[in-house]
Amino acid sequence: MDRAIRPLVIIAAFAGSLAVGLLIMLWVMGGLKTVTAPAAIGGPFQLVDQAGRTVTEQNLKGKPTLIFFGFTHCPDVCPTALFEISEVLKAMGSDADKVNAWFVSVDPERDTAAAMKDYLSSFDPHLKGLTGDPAAVAKVLSAYRVYARKVPLKDGDYTMDHTALIYLMDRNGNFVAPFNLKRTPEEAAKDLKRYL
Question: How far, in Å, CA of 135 to CA of 22, rounded?
Answer without folding.
Answer: 52
